[in-house]
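For reproducibility, we list the full input for the glycyl-adenosine-5'-phosphate complex.
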Amino acid sequence: MTSEEKFKKVISHAKEYGFVFQSSEIYDGLSAVYDYGQNGTELKNNIKNYWWKAIVQLNENIVGLDSSILMHPTVWKASGHIDAFNDPLIDNKDSKKRYRADILIEDYISKIETKIQKEIFKAEKKFGNQFDRDQFLNTNSRVIQYQSKIKSIHSDFSKALENEDLISLKKIIEDLEIACPISGSKNWTEIKQFNLMFGTKLGASSESAMDLYLRPETAQGIFVNFLNVQKTSRLKIPFGIAQIGKAFRNEIVARQFIFRMREFEQMEMQFFIKPGTQKDWYNKWKEDRMKWHLSLGLGQENYRFHDHEKLAHYADAACDIEFNFPFGFKELEGIHSRTDFDLSNHEKFSSKKLKYFDSQKNESFIPYVLETSIGVDRMFLAVFSNSLCNEKLENGSSRIVLKLPAILAPCKVAILPLLKKDGLPEIAKNLLEKLKTEYSVSYDEKDAIGRRYRRQDALGTPYCITIDHQSKEDSTYTLRERDSMSQERLSEDEILKKIESKLSIKSWM
Ligand code: GAP
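The corresponding predicted structure, in tokenized form, follows.
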């Protein structure tokens, strides 16, 4: 299956099983805006919970916040978003399609990277156990050529981005003969900067209305509340403030399903530190965040760090944690050393003191900030696409299974009476009552048991408990495990203990 076909399967499975729907679908949808269905909502909530536990609950010096989406417009002047939150946009004159110039170039580079991967794959197959990856990368002439091409594009590309040199950026597109993916045409307009913020108005009459923006990041709500939280919590530096909430961006390129949305959710944490210590904290948070990702077991090979070539207007160091999505490695989370840019500017624009007072040293200063920022929806896509498999079984048949990390699964346990009679539903419902206060549990008595198992596999339910006639005799049930499909006859107590140990947060973090 090509990666494109795999991605299509991910999108259709998400719809078919109630995870993600196109927004306003009955009106033909709204581009890059999505709704989460009954199972998607649970999965999304579990992702947010897993993040919140790791960031807030397990760190005594990090607290939460829930700030508003609408903020005073000067916030966005001070943060630099009005002047600098732009993407370089280019139109194709023939297809009339609009693109981000930087993404056209990044996609071109990704294609060369894919060619390198193909060469590695071929060589691995040819040489088997003898294959030495490093040696191959350093000696294969075709791979060396590809790598040097990537290096040269990177160097021109980052220079053009750093200098905001739109003419050079266009020249790279022309020199590489990048064509419109829709029409194949190379007939491009000049590149323009495009501000990504959505505007709206506050107030009833047009004369008195005030221009506002829907927040493009949740971070600014944390900055403007920094002293409110610090003073009321009496936290001392270093400390963090975390927030989960909606953000809005008028993205030029709206494709790749929930990867790039116009309305999305972020999980952000601003960590306030002493100036001069930012390098150490940057490394510490890089390590911590990678550990969090790896704890979910999606495979170490699917993650990599990518240092930013062009630093955002607020950062002195920044990197992404990239994930191997069905369309290749792309940004999943950003880790940014934001200096004192935001707090200093808010102090300047608001004329209010935003300094932290160090009572031991009897001195005041504006803290530096280390930020971790991850999109909930991107995390959803990473987990969901990585988990979906079509598995060949020993008997020659196949099954679709969503091997979600059990801790994130929308439904943890499905309770299935073998028959709809003989008192089996009563025993099953009794068990349901006991489990539902602790876990999200579902009950299913329709269809043959094999079909019910398949349905739960496709939803990602890690455990099924089947109640049969023997259960009436000795109060034992069959516990079926999703990934191994193993079935074990256990007492109620044994089942509860087993599930508890597998779903306890301690066994994950
Ligand atoms: N406060 C810093 C900030 O917003 P960012 O790199 O622009 O940094 C952080 O965004 C994260 O938010 C990204 O790593 C990504 O996971 C998510 N994100 C950004 N734009 C998005 C979009 N249009 N759709 C979905 N997620 C997005």
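Residues 411-507 form a domain with the Rossmann fold fold (CATH 3.40.50.800). The first strand starts at residue 20 and ends at 22. Both points were considered when choosing residues for closer inspection.
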